[in-house]
Amino acid sequence: MFQETPFNELPMENLAKHAQGAPAACEAVTASAGTAPSTTDLHRPRDLWYARAKAVIPWGVSSNFRYWGERETLVVQRGEGAYIWDVDGKRYIDYRLGFGPIILGHAYPEVVQAVARAIQDGVTFAMTNVYEVQAAERLCRMAGVDMVRFVNSGTEATMHAIRVARAHTGRERIVKFEGCYHGSHDHVMWSTASAPLGALGSRRSPIPVPSSSGIPSVLRDKVITLPYNDFEMLERTVRDRGHEIAAIIVEPMMGNMAGLMPVKGWLTFIRQLCDEHGIVMILDEVKTGFRIAPGGAQQFFGVQADLVTYAKAMGNGFPVGALAGKREFMMTIEPGAVGVGGTYCGNVVSVVACDATLRVMEREPVFETISQRGMRLMAGIHGILDRHGIPHVIAGVPAMFGVIVGTDADAALPRDYRSVLRYANDDLSHRINWALIHSGIMVDPDYQEPWFLCYALSDADVDETLEKFEDAVRAVLRS
C-alpha cells in the first residue's frame, strides 16, 4: 500500500486569514463563557470521583497534561465511536481522542473483539509470538519500512531511536527543534512547547530550555535546539558541528504546536543534510503515523527517514509503539551490544490491536472519510472566524489540524514555535475552547494541541460542531 509519491497535495495547508478591522472585543474579553463550573453543586459525581483520584494519584491525573485545574479536570466514564461521556453523564463529541490515538473510534468493535479473542491464550511470553510477526509484516508493508521493533509508547520509541542512532554513528549529540515534543525522557525534554519565549535566547544562538525540574544539566551538552523551518540555521549548525551529531529528530508537522506544517522542502532538506554528513534522520511519527496517510508522513510528504517512531493511531488507543526503519539502521540493534527491549514489548494485547487497526485501514476508506470531514471542519471554522473578523491560521491536515487565533491582523503568519507564540491570542483561544467544551465539543483548552478526527465521526457531528463553534465565538465576543 505504501507509495513513494506524496499521498496528499496539502489542499488546506496553513489556511489563514488576516482579518481586517477586527472588532475591539477580539483583543480582550472577560467572558463568562470559559469560566469554571458553578460551585453550587459540590457533590456531583465528578467532584466525588476527582476527590478520590487526588487522594491516591498526584493531582488526580496520571499525566500532567490531563490536569486542567481543580474545578475543570474531568473524569470520564466511557467512550464509544466519536463520543465520550463524563461521570456526570454529559456526552461530548471528542476531538482530543486521547491526544490522537483513537483513529477509528472509541471501543471500535473489530479491534476490541480481536484483542478479546487473542488474550484468552495468554498475553506475555518473553518470546516472539505469532501475532507480533503478523503485525510487523503488515506495518512494514503499509509504512514502507524494512524492519520494526515493537515497544509500548512513543516515549520508548524515541528513546530507543536516539540510542540506536548514537550507536550507529559513534556520536552523541542530537538536533531537535523548538516546540517539538518527542516524549518524556530526559534526552528530548528540551525547548518543548512549554518553554517560555524569553528563555530561548537569540534565534541565532538558541538556548536549550529544560521542560521539567529533575533533568540533569549535563544533558544540555548533548542536545542542540534550533528553530523549526529555518534552513539557514540548520545548514550552518550541521556544517560546523556535523561531526558531533548522531541524529536529527524531527516531527514531520508540529504535533504539539497546532499542527504547524513544514514549509516546502524542509523535510527533504533535512534528508539531504543527513546524507551528506552521515547523520541519522529520525522522523517522529508518533502523532502522524497511520493518521495522516496509510503510510504516515513518509508517504504523505514523499520523504524516507533512516529511523521512524510510531505509537498512538497504530493501535486505536491500545498502548503500543514501534521503532522502525531501514534495515541498515535497524540491524544496529544487536543482542549483547545495542539494547532495545522491555518486558512488555510485543505483548499480545498491543500487537493484536495494532494488526486489527491496520487491517481496517487497509480494507476500508478510513483516510478518505476522515479527510472529507476534516476538510469541512477546517473550511467551516475558517469561515466562522473570518465572518467575525478574527485573525487566525488553521494549520495542518484534515485528520489533525490546529486553530491559531491571532492578536494582530497585520502580523506575519507563523512558521515556527517562536512566531506562533508571538502571533497567538492565548486569552481568546482559551475562552473559545472552554466555551466549546462546556457545550459538549471536546477540544483541548490549549490551542497548541491539534484537533484530531476519527473514522466514526459523522457529517451530523461536523454540523453540530460548526454550529456550536459559531455559538461559542458569538458568546465570547458578546461578553
Tell me the major beta sheet.
7 strands, mixed
Beta strand %? 5-15%
Quickly name the level 1 CATH class of the largest domain. Alpha Beta
Query: Helicity range of the residues?
Result: 25-40%
Tell me, briefly, the overall form: globular
Distance between the termini: 51 Å
What is the radius of gyration?
22 Å
Spell out the CATH superfamily of the largest domain.
Answer: Type I PLP-dependent aspartate aminotransferase-like (Major domain)
User: Which structural category do the helix and sheet elements fall into?
Assistant: alpha/beta
CATH architecture of the largest domain: 3-Layer(aba) Sandwich
Average pLDDT for all residues: 92
For this structure, the CATH topology of the largest domain is: Aspartate Aminotransferase, domain 2
Number of domains: 2
Description:
With 479 residues, this protein is of the alpha/beta class. It has two domains: 15-107 and 366-478, Aspartate Aminotransferase, domain 1 (Alpha-Beta Complex); 109-363, Aspartate Aminotransferase, domain 2. It is built from 13 helices and 17 strands. The strands form four sheets. Strands 5-13-12-11-10-6-9 form a seven-stranded mixed sheet, with helices on both faces. Strands 1-14-15-17 form a four-stranded antiparallel sheet. A four-stranded mixed sheet has the order 2-3-4-16. Helix 2 (109-118) runs antiparallel to helix 9 and helix 12 packs across helix 13.
